[in-house]
Amino acid sequence: RSWYYQTCTEFGYYQTNDYKESIFYDNINLDYFVGICKSAFFDEMLNKTLSLEEAHEIVQQRIDYTNNFYGARNIPRSHIYYTNGKVDPWSEL
Known about the structure:
hydrolase, mainly alpha, dipeptidyl-peptidase activity, 3 helices, signal
């Protein structure tokens, strides 16, 4: 639940699929993940039922905020150690 909360309120990182021949094409899309955010967190946190479009807006606003706060691709370059990431399971993405 905590990882889903972070993806909904900070990162995104949704692994969606736009390859039409995939068995997951129609079911596992961005609406699927944002729907989880909506029902698991946003409706309760805001004490109202949101539309899926409103939930999309909240997710995008939170991702934009996180990217802005941490610098996204323009990270300040001091006291940072970069590894090669070969043992990181996300490295091939």
